[in-house]
Amino acid sequence: MRNHLLCALAFAALPLTVAAQDTDLTGGKEIPKRTCVDSQRFFLRNDMVRTQIGQELGTCRTFTGGRAAKFSYTRDGIADSWTVSTDAAFGYVLKETRSPSALAGLFPSLVSSSLIAFAEIDGERTSAGVTSGTGRVGLIYEAMFLPGNPVFSYGVLDVVPYYRFGLDGDAKGHGLEVAYVPVFGPLNHNALVDNRQDKVIFSTSSVFRLDAYHSDTGGNTGLGNGQDYLWVGADLGAKVKFRNAKRTVAEAGLEISHYRDLESGVEATQGIANLSFPLDDKEIASFDLTYTHGRTRDNLTKVESFKVSLGIKF
């Protein structure tokens, strides 16, 4: 496990270089110093690593990626039973710092950094008292930087020490995740999409992860007891947003994640198709239809489900 953690930390340290002056992406214009007192602190998503907290260069705008947290309630009148499901991540920004210098040049340059405390839950509970699923708590150090190449607008690097647990109390372990999110604004890749005049908006997303995890006990997750894992892989997605003159009326998305454990060769692949109907102009709440098939690296139990849920994202 120690070697895995050192590998993850070495990977995380590669892109972080701070340059000597403020410039914008067009090259040459100085960026005025600005204090962003109105930056968002509390976030609710389904994955905090997918939520880009950093401030855009020269502005106070906050990036807000990631899917909405989902809550559902199912009632079986014949069996007189119910099931409550939650797929949510809660994050609070403890500290946010904007670099005094950022240079659009040949080398990576730090724009801003954040420290976020988070908790994630993905599971369900039935009226019979049966609880399944996993959760994790930890910290995220997030650095947003100019990548030093003409391809991507920004890069976002997350270093995530965490503790994972089974919601039934049987599984537990700890790990260190390193995630990289490339941002390319012109093609709406991992970017803040706000094209109000467009009726149809297409965007894509990607997250590349290296996750070193030690499973103390696997419980019902399919992971071994006292076993080390070194997961490497990515989440890739695409979505289409449909708008009228005033607001978004529907959003359809598809996401595929694939990870491989370099120790054992075990693979975890999951596909998610989602159709969302926003319930307000700011798209905080939505009515969601979600189909999930496959398994994740934190729970190797295969899942195939279709859920109707309330989505919340802020």
Structure description:
The protein is mainly β. It has a single domain, classed as Outer membrane phospholipase (ompla), Chain C, CATH 2.40.230. The chain is 4% helix and 56% strand. The protein is built from 1 helix and 13 strands, in the order H-E-E-E-E-E-E-E-E-E-E-E-E-E. It has one helix at residues 2-13, and strands spanning 42-45, 69-76, 81-98, 109-126, 131-146, 154-166, 172-183, 200-217, 227-243, 248-261, 267-278, 285-296, 299-312. It has a 12-stranded antiparallel beta barrel with strand order 2-3-4-5-6-7-8-9-10-11-12-13. A hairpin with a 5-residue loop joins strand 10 and strand 11 (267-278). The longest helix is centred in the first third of the chain and has 12 residues, at 2-13. Residues 13-35 have low confidence and may be disordered.
Write a brief structural summary.
By secondary structure, this protein is mainly beta.
Record the SSE blueprint.
Layout: H1 2-13, E1 42-45, E2 69-76, E3 81-98, E4 109-126, E5 131-146, E6 154-166, E7 172-183, E8 200-217, E9 227-243, E10 248-261, E11 267-278, E12 285-296, E13 299-312
Antiparallel strand pairs: 1-3, 2-3, 2-13, 3-4, 4-5, 5-6, 6-7, 7-8, 8-9, 9-10, 10-11, 11-12, 12-13
Any idea what the CATH architecture is?
A: Beta Barrel
Shape: globular
Q: What is the name of the CATH class?
A: Mainly Beta
Distance between the termini: 36 Å
Task: Provide the gyration radius in Å.
Answer: 20 Å
Poorly predicted regions are 13-35
Mean pLDDT: 81
Count of individual helical segments? 1
State the helical fraction.
under 10%
Query: β content, as a range?
Result: over 45%
Query: How many domains would you count in the coordinates?
Result: 1
Structural class: mainly beta
Strand order in space, largest sheet? 2-3-4-5-6-7-8-9-10-11-12-13
Major sheet: 12 strands, antiparallel, barrel
Q: How many β-strand runs?
A: 13
